[in-house]
Amino acid sequence: MIKINFSIRPFVKANGQVAVRARWNSKKSEVTFITGAYADASKWDDDLRKAKHGTTHVVRNMSFTYYDINGRIADFKQTIEETFAKCSLANTMPTASELKSMVNKALGRNEHEEATPEEVKKKNMKQMIAWFLDECGREKNWDNQAKEKYTQAFQHITKANPHIKPDKITIEHMYKLKNWYIKQGFRNRTINKQVTMLKGFLKWIDTKQGYNIPSAVLNFETNLKVLPKTVTFLHYDELLRFAHFEFTNDKSGRLTRARDFWCFMAFTSLRISDLLQLSTNHIMDGRIEMFAQKTGEHLYIPLTEEAIAILDKYRGKETADGHIFDIPSAQKLNDAVKDAAKVVGLDRIITEVYYVGTERKEISYKFCDIISNHDARRTFVSCSLAMGIPAEVVMKCTGHSNYNTMKPYIETATETQTLQMEKWNKNQYRSQIINLLEDADEDKLKKILSYLKRVV
Question: How far, in Å, CA of 199 to CA of 209, rounded?
Answer without folding.
Answer: 18
